[in-house]
Specification:
The complex is a heterodimer of chains A (430) and B (316). With 430 residues, chain A is α/β, with parallel strands linked by helices. Chain A is 29% helix and 22% strand. The relative contact order of chain A is 0.16. Chain B has 316 residues and is an alpha/beta fold. In chain B, 40% of the residues lie in helices and 14% in strands. A five-stranded parallel β-sheet of chain B has the order 7-6-5-8-9. A four-stranded parallel β-sheet of chain B has the order 2-1-3-4, with helices on both faces. Classes of the chains: A alpha/beta (430), B alpha/beta (316). Chains A and B meet through helix 5 of A and helix 4 of B.
């Protein structure tokens, strides 16, 4: 059986090792390992393959923006070996049939594990629970449920959903946005929105839902996951909830860790996203929270849109930005380049913890005997980000920015999906 | 130095330059022959995606007095209502040969987008973008205030140093308020904002008042500028009723009568009589409302002339 040896890579704990992969397993970690295919990995950091808990793959229904194939190719280039595909497709992923279709499209593409997220409510309409049990028991084995893009705003429905998914170990991932407080909202409510005359999306619309939902989770004894935290106040509520013993996990997107509402001054909707880019103070609070553990994971909220959805006036434009190929760089910037954290933490926020939240058994750990899902990063690389990525869409807010780090290799189920920075062809990974 | 999108980055000198030019235009407008040949063979497009008969007509008269060819494009009933994008609309028109676009759009930033997204390379005049800005309105208001303070014929080169202006009403959603706030401050005026807390935006300095009577008493403004109130604000719970709004934030007959006889009363129009302003105030000697309309043409002639003839610089 052919084996691959990754020579001289540095693990997240700092050890420099050789890693031998045989078939789809990590067979040995040690020194002076021999194998059929030896890859020099000196200077590279080897981490468990990244797991994105929040990806919009757009298929079925919006194939002009992205397909499962192009989205997962972009994911592989970003160091991911698993993505969780949000339910706001057309048809909505609210039945066993649709989630099984998405799961099988992922297997067909072959670049990463595609785990469909099931809708909490039928058609994301917030009125009636979708068949959560049927999705959980389908071949897609859905564990994470979300109406992302919309908030489950009805408190009773949210309570029931939190309780119900306990039957099969599921978790509700809430898009926290009080709908009445954000009618017509275009950007963060603050000084910049006042000046620009764009309708504001106030922080309280997010924070009030998070406060309500952590209390609901406590009341029914369920766990809850909060999508894309964007405000300082949200951080404080999650910190309080955790100190109270509430079983809550929280994610932050790369763009909320880096970009602020000042960018809206360009009136360029490339910076229009939901929840909106916030202030510098929010960005700093989110960074601190990611470092100290209040925020558990980084998730991309990769949201591709066709050119025409952004090449228009701000109000008419779609919300969202791509981000699979820059997520690790932003995490590196915040955790490593700042000198405030370490690779162990980066591996946790991009791999181990999201895998744990979603119950992805084959992901999240780089250890002997585990499935060979890993990524190798050159931490010294400096990249000027190009607008075009492997994604079908170019709504890339990082265009022309300098970011640290580059994904050199990604290995999914023991095969290179990315080798020397290049995406491998589908037939090579099959 | 190509577009007029906002008053936020116009310098005092630039503003005074435009106002002085507008004063000259007003002399032209008082002549028997009111037409200048300056913009002959130039094409100006009035690109209106939102109904505004007054502003459209004002720009139309201004362009015609400068002998420009004026094309009115109204989005209502056009290809825009059939789903054509803003970009395609302006590129199509620009390809037909246009020397300046005058743009009115319901989206904040629409004029900025035309000027800066690389869609076209034509001077753009913002004739009102959403709840953002309406720079020619502020210029015509500044011109009117200058005339009231210094008297016609005594305005050349003057700023508005020390003039106290109270802007009253729905500041949050007002492009008129934003443009006036920036321009009047730049010209040295002391600008006070008066609004119900629900319609007072963040930022915009510290001269803010929720109590209209206190503001009138403590500030003693030289100018009271009333803003139009959209009735849909009431259904969105910004205030409970028309009569309550009138009582607390309207320029009622009583408030008007308690003002100094020198206080100028301004309104950008169209007015809701009996809501934000009483008829007695609107029709008084102190009211500048028709003077504002006349100055609208003067200012717009000055702006069109500056941008298209390339002889005077306006802001980027």
């Amino acid at each position: 059986m052919n084996s691959i040896v990754l020579k001289g890579a540095q693990l997240s704990d700092g050890r420099e090792v050789d890693i031998r992969i045989t078939a789809d397993k990590i067979e040995a970690i040690g020194s002076n390992l021999a194998g059929d295919q030896v890859i020099d990995c000196s200077g590279l950091i080897a981490l468990a393959g990244f797991v994105d808990l929040h990806t919009h793959l757009r298929e079925p229904g919006y194939e002009a923006s992205e397909t499962v194939l192009t989205g997962t190719q972009s994911a592989a280039l970003g160091g991911f070996t698993a993505v969780h595909a949000m339910a706001n497709t057309d048809p909505v992923a609210d039945t066993a049939g649709v989630v099984e279709q998405i799961r099988s499209l992922g297997i067909e593409a072959g670049y990463v594990d595609v785990f469909p997220i099931g809708a909490v409510t039928v058609g994301l309409e917030g009125k009636q629970l979708a068949e959560l049990g049927a999705m959980a028991q389908s071949k897609a084995a859905v564990k994470v449920f979300s109406d992302d893009g919309k908030c489950v705003s009805d408190p009773l429905l949210m309570r029931r959903a939190l309780e119900y998914v306990k039957a099969f170990g599921g978790v509700i991932a809430q898009h926290a946005q009080e709908p009445r407080l954000t009618e017509g909202a275009q950007m963060n409510a603050g000084l910049v929105s006042s000046e620009l005359g764009l309708a504001g999306w106030p922080a309280v619309a997010e924070e009030s839902i998070i406060a309500r939902d952590v209390l609901l989770a406590e009341h029914v004894g369920s766990r809850i996951h909060i999508c894309h935290l964007s405000t300082k106040g949200s951080v404080e509520i999650v910190r309080w909830a955790k100190s109270r013993g509430i079983n809550v996990t929280a994610e932050v997107t790369p763009h909320h860790l880096l970009l602020t509402d000042e960018l809206a001054r360009s009136y360029d909707p490339i910076y229009k996203v939901n929840p909106p880019l916030r202030t510098e103070a929010d960005v700093l609070a989110l960074r601190e929270a990611l470092i100290d553990g209040t925020i558990d994971i980084v998730a991309t909220d990769h949201a591709p849109h066709p050119i025409e959805a952004k090449d228009c006036e701000w109000n008419a434009a779609a919300f969202g930005m791509v981000g699979l190929e820059t997520a690790a760089s932003v995490a590196q910037l915040v955790l490593i380049e700042s000198g405030k954290s370490d690779w162990k933490r980066l591996e946790s926020v991009l791999s181990s913890k999201p895998a744990e939240i979603a119950g992805d058994a084959n992901h999240g750990e780089l250890a002997v005997g585990r499935t060979a899902n890993l990524t190798l990063i050159d931490p010294k690389a400096q990249r000027k980000i190009a607008r075009e990525t492997a994604s079908k869409s170019v709504n890339n807010p990082y265009t022309d920015r300098e970011l640290p780090g580059a994904v050199i290799h990604t290995i999914f189920n023991g095969r290179f999906t990315v080798l020397n920075g290049a995406l491998q062809k589908q037939e090579e990974i099959a | 130095m190509k577009h007029l999108l906002s008053t936020a980055n116009i310098s005092s000198d630039e503003a005074i330059g435009i106002l002085d030019l507008a004063d000259e235009m007003s002399l032209v407008n008082q002549r028997e022959s009111r037409k200048l040949p300056t913009l002959r063979n130039k094409t100006v497009v009035n690109l209106f995606f939102e109904d505004s008969t007054r502003t459209r007509i004002s720009f139309e008269i201004a362009a015609k007095r400068l002998s420009a060819d004026l094309i009115n494009f109204s989005a209502i009933g056009s290809s825009v209502s059939k789903g054509e994008s803003l970009k395609d609309t302006v590129q199509t028109l620009a390809a037909s040969g246009v020397d300046a676009f005058v743009v009115r759009h319901s989206a904040s930033g629409a004029a900025y987008n035309l000027a800066h997204r690389g869609w076209i390379d034509t001077p753009v005049i913002n004739a009102g973008d959403g709840t953002h800005e309406h720079p020619t309105q502020a210029l015509l208001d500044a011109m009117t205030i200058r005339e009231r303070i210094y008297g016609n014929g005594n305005t050349k080169g003057k700023d508005l140093d020390g003039v106290k202006v109270a802007i009253v009403g729905d500041i949050s959603h007002s492009r008129v308020a934003r443009s006036n706030f920036h321009l009047l401050n730049t010209l040295g005026a002391e600008v006070h904002l008066v609004a119900p807390p629900t319609l007072m935006p963040g930022g915009f300095g510290s001269n803010k008042h929720f109590d209209f009577d206190d503001a009138l008493k403590s500030v003693k403004p030289d100018v009271v500028m009333m803003l139009r109130v959209q009735l849909e604000r009431m259904s969105a719970s910004f205030f409970p009723s028309e009569s309550e709004y009138h009582r607390i934030w309207g320029l009622t007959a009583e408030r008007f009568q308690n003002l100094s006889a020198k206080t100028a009363i301004m309104h950008p129009g169209p007015m809701n009589r009996g809501l934000e302003i009483s008829s007695i105030a609107a029709d008084s000697e102190q009211s500048t409302i028709l003077q504002q309309v006349a100055n609208g043409i003067n200012v717009r002639m000055a702006v069109l002339y500056s941008l298209i003839s390339g002889e005077k610089a306006v802001n980027e």
